[in-house]
Amino acid sequence: MLKKVLAVAAIVAIMGVPAFAAEGEAGKTPSSNMLGLALGIGLAVAAFGGAISQSNAIAKAVDAVARQPEAGARIQGMMIIGLALIETLVIYMLLICFMWGGKIV
Fold first, then answer.
1. Which residues contact 86 (CB under 8 A, 6 or more apart)?
2. Which DSSP category does 77 fall into?
3. Does residue 86 contact residue 50 with C-beta atoms inside 8 Å?
4. Rounded to a whole number, what is the distance in angstroms from the first to the last CA of the chain?
5. Domains and their CATH numbers in the chain
6. pLDDT single digits (tens) 20-58
7. Which residues of 72-89 are buried (b: 16+ CB within 10 A; e: fewer)?
8. Are the C-beta atoms of residues 16 and 53 closer than 8 Å to each other?
9. Model pTM?
10. For residues 62 and 69, what is the distance between their CA atoms, to the nearest angstrom?
């Protein structure tokens, strides 16, 4: 698991290098470069965390249904509500990227 996390962190770091290499243009502040980098990394972390959380929730729900099949409908309902709440966090980050993305010149 640690190897996967380090690999994802390395990929995100490598993809963010061009933001640091941009030269100052007229009207473009260095803070806008940092904003773009922060939005990209934030969305990547939110999507990665949401995917990991959803896979764990589904695995636990399948395990619970395998142990107690008669409670399958109740477990499925709770799992769907949990998945919707997890996905909402990723959608919030996407909305933040859309709102702040217009600030990048």
1. 50, 53, 54, 57
2. H
3. yes
4. 38
5. 2-101 (1.20.20.10)
6. 655 555 555 556 667 878 888 888 888 888 899 899 999
7. eeebeeebeebbeebeee
8. no
9. 0.64
10. 10
